[in-house]
Specification:
- The protein has 4 helices and 10 strands, in the order ββαββαββαββββα.
- By secondary structure, it is α+β, with helices and mostly antiparallel strands.
- Helix content is 17%, strand content 27%.
- The strands form 2 sheets. The chain has a 5-stranded mixed β-sheet with strand order 2-1-10-5-6.
- β5 and β6 form a beta hairpin.
- The model has no long low-confidence stretch (mean pLDDT 95).
- The chain has a single domain, classed as Sulfite Oxidase, Chain A, domain 2, CATH 3.90.420.10.
- The structure holds ligand MTE and molybdenum atom (MO).
- Molybdenum atom binds next to loops.
Length: 161
C-alpha cells in the first residue's frame, strides 16, 4: 500500500510535492537534522531542513512568501521566503518513531532560533504544529497568528498549553 502524503508543497513552485514519511527519511544525510533539542531544549525529534525540501520543489522567481498551513486546526502563518528558508526545520520523527499529534505531528515546523511571540516574523508562534501544506506565493498569504496578548492567551488555553 502507498504511504500517505503527510505534507504538500505547492503554489509558486516548479515541482509541487506530496511528501511521505519515507520521502523524508530517505533524504540525504547532510540535510537530516537529528535531535532538535540542541536548538530548543524543550522540543524533541529529528528533522530535515526546510531549505532541502524547497530545493526539490524549486520556488518560482515570483515567490516572495511562504505560508505554513495547519489544516487540522485552521492555523496559518505567512513569512517572507528569504527569512525562513534557512531557519526552518521540518520535524517528522522521534528516534525510530513517527512524531505524534501530542507533539504537533505528524509534521511540525520549527524555527531554529525564534524570537518571542509577536517579537518579529520568525517568532515562536511560527512553530506550526500539524503542518499539512507549505504554499509559496507572490505576496503575503494567510496569517492567523494571534496579534495581541489577549488573543494569544485565548489560543494557548484552547491548545492546552
Ligand atoms: N497548528 C497550530 N500550530 C501552532 C499553534 C496553533 O494554535 N496551532 N500555536 C502557535 C503558538 S502561538 C505558539 S507560541 C507555539 C507554542 O508551541 P508549544 O505549544 O509547543 O509550546 O505553537 C504555535 N503553533
Ligand atoms: Mo505564540
Amino acid at each position: 500500500m502507498d504511504s500517505p502524503v503527510l505534507l504538500r508543497v505547492e503554489g509558486a513552485v516548479g515541482r509541487p510535492l506530496g511528501v511521505t514519511f519515507e520521502d523524508l527519511a530517505g533524504m540525504p544525510g547532510d540535510v537530516q537534522v537529528p535531535d532538535v533539542s540542541r536548538f530548543q531544549p524543550t522540543r524533541r525529534g529529528d528533522a530535515v531542513t526546510l531549505a532541502a525540501l524547497l530545493g526539490v520543489a524549486s520556488p518560482r522567481p515570483e515567490a516572495t512568501h511562504l505560508t505554513l498551513h495547519a489544516d487540522r486546526d485552521d492555523f496559518h502563518v505567512s513569512i517572507p521566503l528569504d527569512a525562513i528558508r534557512e531557519q526552518g526545520l521540518v520535524v517528522y520523527k522521534v528516534g525510530p518513531d513517527r512524531l505524534g499529534v501530542e507533539q504537533g505531528g505528524p509534521i511540525r515546523l520549527l524555527i531554529r532560533d525564534p524570537s518571542a511571540c509577536h517579537a518579529g516574523e520568525l517568532d515562536e508562534c511560527a512553530n506550526v504544529k500539524y503542518l499539512s501544506r507549505i504554499e509559496l506565493t507572490a505576496g503575503r498569504g494567510r496569517d492567523t497568528r494571534p496579534v495581541d496578548d489577549e488573543s494569544h492567551r485565548a489560543l494557548h488555553e484552547q491548545q492546552g498549553a
